[in-house]
Design brief:
Length: about 290
């Protein structure tokens, strides 16, 4: 572990460094690296396996009590949002070497205190059940700005590779599981539609010039927002085609399948696609 931070959900500009030997230092995160599947079994079979919210503890050495006071203030502010009916919207973000998870800190328990030093056991409430990491964003430009062919910006050593022409490309997911994603579609565009792996992602809206459409397919964060040229935002989830749900062939939030998928669009608009990795625990090798 090289970096370990907690970013406030109430004020995203506020971050607590949890791997700073001069203020708050957590050296081991064994509990956070423990997988947490909840498995229901029946006679010689498994009926379900899910990753739920769970608690994990880590011990912090705090040579700066001022830093500890500030950290507790940040943790408390995010928890206080629950009393205001905000739910997980005020949860902070725990980040370990670039892998993130929504989190709250319900307990900071001192175990040793002397001469301006404290050792505390910190309880992290991990809300997502998984850790996530954004892969490099893929850029697709309309023919009008790319000389008739879509420019692809993708390092060759990434798990997702693109190849192909202006309207049909190949998207390779080397994971064994489907992956979620985020997308930004740039205006002008009318009823933009993108087909990935046989699933049509379509939103029946008009995106003005200078505006864009934000689509987030992450569990517990799913949204479709239209942003105009003045920065005004509108929820247009009701304009997104959702078919009969996942696997229906027309589900806006359908995950990108494992393996190789065809990707096609009209090439009359540009968009960015960010695929998101998910793991039970932050990787040991990074």
């Amino acid at each position: 572990m090289r970096t370990f931070t907690y970013t406030s959900g109430v004020d995203p500009t506020t971050t607590v460094d949890l791997a700073d030997p001069e203020s708050i230092m957590i050296g081991q995160i064994r509990d956070l690296r423990t997988t947490g599947w909840n498995v229901d079994t029946d006679y010689r079979t498994v009926t379900s396996a899910i990753r739920e919210a769970r608690e994990a503890e880590a011990t912090a050495n705090c040579p700066s009590l001022e830093a500890l006071d500030r950290a507790v203030m940040v943790f408390d502010a995010d928890l206080a949002g629950l009393d205001n009916g905000q739910g997980r919207r005020t949860a902070g973000t725990l980040t370990v070497d670039g892998w993130t998870q929504k989190c709250l800190v319900p307990r900071v328990k001192p175990s040793i205190t002397f001469h301006g030093f404290a050792q505390c056991d910190i309880t992290f409430l991990l809300l997502d059940g998984v850790w996530r990491h954004d892969m490099d964003t893929l850029h697709y430009w309309p023919a009008s700005t790319s000389g008739g062919a879509a420019d692809l910006d993708l390092p060759t050593d990434m798990p997702f590779d693109l190849a192909g022409g202006a309207k049909i490309d190949t998207l390779v997911n080397t994971s064994l599981l489907p992956r979620p994603w985020r997308m930004t579609i740039f205006g002008p565009a009318t009823n933009p539609s993108i087909v990935i792996g046989g699933n049509t992602h379509q939103i029946d809206v008009t995106i003005p010039a200078g505006g864009y459409l934000l689509i987030d397919a992450i569990d517990n964060e799913k949204q479709v927002l239209l942003v105009d040229q003045n920065g005004n935002r509108a929820n247009v989830l009701d304009k997104a085609r959702r078919g009969t749900g996942q696997g229906s062939g027309e589900y806006i939030f359908e995950r990108i399948p494992a393996g190789t998928s065809a990707l096609s669009w009209s090439n009359s608009f540009g968009f960015d696609l960010t695929v998101v990795e998910e793991r039970s625990v932050p990787p040991w090798s990074n």
